[in-house]
Design brief:
Length: about 230
């Protein structure tokens, strides 16, 4: 009897195709897989994998019966993708991210129609709001917002903007740690304290004594009157 399990992960190449839409699954984009083995003794490396875009994948019933943390690959996901996974599971077996997109688009159209009707009833010209997709593209703020959930990234692709931001933050934190480590390796002088004098050794004492003797001898020679010429 075939053993079927499911997983979720980021694509490790661009060689897989979605079983539903038959399109290529982009590298590093979020994908879901169905793994089939002939029996439980068969090793996973010999299993057959069937991949889906996150948007195209339909929730299997088993995912609605186990804690989400036990789903294979869930702990390695970004926080935003963990939230997306939980949202489709709440839809129940057969639920998908595509359904959430459709629900969002329907609500947007209904809200726009209501706003248009209200403007016409007041005798005003209806001005459509700036789309969230366009607003997100023109927004200089690097923080993620709800608009990001309904852009082209809905296919599950990793947000490049967030990746760049996280790399900058990690680089800054690493530099601060290196500076702190370097500072901790040096002796800390008390604020306002005068620099300590170098420690006197036997060698420095001998050099100082030799210099003092030479200076005294030079002084005697200078005081001695010069011999008169015959």
């Amino acid at each position: 009897m075939a053993v079927i399990t499911y997983c979720i992960e980021y694509a490790q190449s661009q060689n897989s195709k979605c079983q539903k839409c038959t399109k290529i699954i982009p590298n590093k984009s979020l994908r879901c897989g169905r793994m089939e083995r002939d029996n439980e003794k068969q090793k996973k490396k010999f299993a057959r994998y069937f991949w889906y875009h996150f948007k195209c994948f339909e929730v299997p019933e088993i995912w609605t019966q186990v804690p989400v943390a036990l789903i294979r690959g869930q702990p390695e996901l970004l926080d935003k993708d963990k939230v997306r996974l939980e949202r489709i599971i709440k839809l129940g077996a057969g639920g998908s991210w595509e359904q959430i997109i459709q629900q969002h688009n329907k609500k947007t159209r209904d809200d726009e129609a209501a706003a248009r009707a209200e403007a016409e009833a007041r005798g005003e010209e209806y001005v459509p709001p700036v789309s969230k997709k366009r607003k997100a593209a023109n927004d200089d703020d690097d923080d993620d917002d709800e608009a990001g959930d309904f852009t082209t990234a809905l296919t599950g692709e990793v947000d490049k903007k967030t990746e760049r931001k996280n790399r900058k933050i990690n680089k800054k934190i690493k530099a601060q740690k290196e500076q702190k480590t370097a500072a901790d390796g040096k002796p800390h002088a008390k604020k306002g304290a005068a620099p300590s004098a170098p420690k006197e050794t036997v060698t420095t004492k001998a050099i100082a004594a030799s210099r003092a003797g030479s200076k005294a001898l030079l002084g005697k020679l200078k005081k001695k009157p010069a011999a008169s010429k015959a």
